[in-house]
Amino acid sequence: MATTDEIRDIVLKYVKDEYLEDEDQEVGYETPLISGGIVDSFSMVSLKRFVENKYKVQIPEDKATPEAFDTVTRIAALVQAFLEKKA
Amino acid sequence: MAFSDAVRAGFRKDLEGLKEAGIFKVERFIHSAQAADIEVEFPAGSPPRKAINMCANNYLGLSSHPEVVKAAHAGLDSRGYGMSSVRFICGTQDIHKELEGRMTAFLGTEDTILFPSCMDANAGVFEALLNESDVMISDRLVHASIIDGIRLCKAEHDTFKHANMEHLESKLELHKDKRLKVVITDGVFSMDGDTAPLGELVALCERRGAMVFVDDSHSTGFIGKTGRGTHEKYGVVGKIDIITTTFGKALGGASGGCVSGRREIVEMCRQRARPYLFSNTIAPVVVAGVLRVLDILAGSTERRDKLEKNAAYWRKGLTEAGFVLKEGDTPIVPVMLFNAKLSQDFSRDLFEHGIYAIGFFFPVVPKGAARIRTQISAGHETRHLDKALEAFIKVGKKHGILGKTKEEIVARYGA
What is the DSSP string of A13-70? Predict the structure, then answer.
């Protein structure tokens, strides 16, 4: 099973490729993505789909909240929790 | 009583939260007809003051044009005030069909259907056409009404980076197995005033087998050599499958909108689009006014030409004065201030100088991208623009931002 650190790095790379408009923008594990205006809640759908496809998990809508997806660390923790449940 | 004290307290708390976050909206009351010169009561209760309006969508200056007003009077006299019915029961007059035909000809499409507003057109169109087997891929900066329409539709949804064709292509590849693919964009983006690269976008969608949807609300009537819209500007008339647009901006500015495009798509909207089926359409008086607007536009390109000239004059003046602008060539000219509070202070100070222009900040625009959005009109004369520029320079000096770069403004005020 992927470690949380590995998941964090993969999610961070996806966030940079998918959402950053300008290369100077800095994003780290703890950068607020949705409340910080980097990912709008409407565009969050591709992030959810990415982690679901990548890790073969289903995150129900009530768990895929803007709060749960607000930082890379939180996303990785959420994915990890679903992976453990699956295992 | 269901609206208990606790419920009331809950809503009050929410409203206070909006005030604390600085996003509580306050209306300003205009005591005159919509035009370049208006009289504004602000704050509420204060005597109305004369101001130059620099923030209306009155691009062609037709909102209070005497010929449009006269035509609306005549329409009121001949077709009455209300329809008291939805379209398919007994709410369709000859002039509604006439306006649909005229818009089809104006936009160079196959057919058109009227909606009570463009907000309704965008809310209804996707659900009427698409299902779970399909995908909608939208530019990240599309208008809120499109977002609502997408949310109401069962098709899958994805977004692409603003005007980024490479990113769009990767999304079209990702969703290549879908039954129908619709790429969704604004023609002119209302907050930045830039245009979608429709030439490239149409070519890409043709190659990838996707339909193209364009909301041209901030374009219809003045973008392109004869004002047909962004599809005219980019030489793709007849290649946009779905255009939505409004009569609430350049085309008289009253209300109403439409979906115009492929015949079968329009017919599907007539059969299935809920805002069309379950709401009265545009009032006869407004239809009569819009028909006159289309006559005016058919007779001459004078108004859109003047608008283009005005916008270039305004942009040049602000640039020479040392403001940071969003680049573009439309009548939407955002003056970048970056800091939310500065945008509010700047707007207030402009009003003190008789200039009415509003500051926008997060969440309406991205964080750190606060601005005064100015909108130019063919109703502006050079004297309006000169007076507005004079006020912008005075207020710009007061806040020490003239000739300063983005980095310098952010260093002083924060993002």
Answer: HHHHHHH-SSTT----TT--STTTTSS-TTTHHHHHHHHHHHHT----TTTS-TTTTS
Question: Is B190 an annotated catalytic residue?
Answer: yes
How far is residue B121's CA from residue B256's CA, in Å, rounded to a whole number?
Answer: 9
How far, CA to CA in Å, does B142 sit from each of B122, B190, B235, B353?
11, 9, 22, 33
Q: Is the pLDDT of residue B400 over 90?
A: yes
**Domains assigned to chain A:** 4-19+28-86 (1.10.1200.10)
| B301-329 confidence digits (pLDDT tens) | 999 999 999 999 999 999 999 999 999 99
Q: Which residues of B touch A40 (CB under 8 A)?
A: 140
Q: Where are the domains of chain B?
A: 25-54+302-413, 66-299
Q: Give yes or no on whether B25-54+302-413 and B66-299 have one common fold.
A: no
Active site residue B218: yes
CATH 3.40.640.10 fits B66-299, yes or no: yes
Q: Quick check: A37 and B140 CB within 8 A?
A: no
Alpha-carbon span A51 to B241, nearest angstrom: 33
DSSP B56: -
Rounded CA-CA distance B281/B285 in Å is 12
Calculate what percentage of chain B has a pLDDT beyond 90: 95
- State pLDDT tens for residues B86-129: 999 999 999 999 999 999 999 999 999 999 999 999 999 999 99
Give the closest-approach CA distance of B231 to chain A in angstroms.
Answer: 26
Check residue B154 and give its pLDDT. 96
For helices B118-129 and B263-272, give the axis angle rounded to 10 degrees: 100
Length of chain B as a residue count: 415
Instruction: Report residues of chain A scoring pLDDT below 50.
Output: none
Which fold would CATH assign to domain B25-54+302-413? Aspartate Aminotransferase, domain 1 (3.90.1150)
Cα–Cα distance measured from residue B7 to residue B26, given in angstroms and rounded to the nearest whole number = 23
